[in-house]
From TrEMBL:
One of its GO terms (molecular function) is DNA binding. Residues 18-85 form the HTH gntR-type domain. InterPro entries: GntR_C, TF_FadR/GntR_C, Tscrpt_reg_HTH_GntR, WH-like_DNA-bd_sf, WH_DNA-bd_sf. The lineage of its organism: Bacteria, Bacillati, Bacillota, Tissierellia, Tissierellales. Pfam families: FCD, GntR. This is GntR family transcriptional regulator. Gene3D superfamilies: GntR ligand-binding domain-like, Winged helix-like DNA-binding domain superfamily/Winged helix DNA-binding domain. Keywords: DNA-binding, Transcription, Transcription regulation. PROSITE patterns: HTH_GNTR.
Length: 231
């Protein structure tokens, strides 16, 4: 248990604007998604509370959130067991997202006005701006803004609901890839290419670039997961 806590401490950011319970939850989730806490690990809430010198409230909140995201499970008479995600899971999640993002982009393209395209371009310009300033956190938020914009403009509520089921994974997959300077710059350029395809109303280009964009992210994330020996 002490090893688990040491890992969580490394990912615990008390300097962020988040509440304590959100910070603890984020630290556990990041540690599990990245494979630092492997599947099968047992988590004891009381021990976590003692070793982190915190009340049980933020620990319980974190475990409840992780349970709802299917990253941990409560086993009767045993306790909380980490389920995590495997490399196989990551491959499957990316394959699903390639087609969902492509569909969302095409539908958004069909519904967007010139003003909408101007707003989309501003989002991309901001990504380049934040990258130049090396404000990585803002680039990561910008990428979420870009994706949310497309799904909102697609006006497909059920599609958005499906994507939201995977948002915990997408969040950390995004962070893993964008923390790399090389991958981050490539990804921003790929967003600009997706915009261009949508602006030109070129379905073939949208499909090709969206798939390439997520394939590059997938390859990077999988390589990082392999470093942590996730099966």
């Amino acid at each position: 248990m002490r090893k688990v806590i040491n890992i969580v401490k490394e990912n615990l950011d008390f300097n962020s604007s988040k509440t304590l319970k959100e910070s603890v939850y984020e630290a556990f989730r990041k540690s599990i998604v990245l494979g630092f806490i492997p599947a099968g690990t047992r988590i004891n809430e009381n021990e976590c509370s003692e070793l982190l010198n915190l009340s049980r409230t933020p620990i319980r909140y974190a475990m409840n959130q992780l349970t709802s995201e299917n990253l941990v499970t409560r086993v009767p008479k045993i306790g909380i067991i980490v389920k995590g995600i495997s490399i196989k899971d990551a491959h499957e999640i990316y394959e699903i997202r390639k087609w969902l993002d492509t569909l969302a982009s095409i539908k958004a393209m069909e519904r967007m006005t010139e003003e909408d395209f101007d707003d989309m371009k501003k989002i991309i310009d901001e990504a380049y701006y934040y990258d130049e300033l090396e404000e990585i956190d803002k680039v990561i938020k910008n990428f979420k803004q870009f994706n949310d914009f497309i799904y909102r403009k697609s006006d497909m509520k059920r599609l958005t609901a499906i994507v939201n089921q995977f948002k915990a994974y997408f969040k950390y997959f995004r962070e893993i890839s964008l923390l790399s300077d090389k991958r981050r710059k490539e990804a921003i350029f790929e967003h600009s290419m997706i915009y261009r395809g949508m602006k030109n109303r070129d379905i073939n280009q949208i499909t090709l670039i969206t798939h390439e964009h997520l394939q590059h992210s997938q390859e990077f994330v999988i390589s990082e997961m392999e470093k942590n020996h996730i099966e």
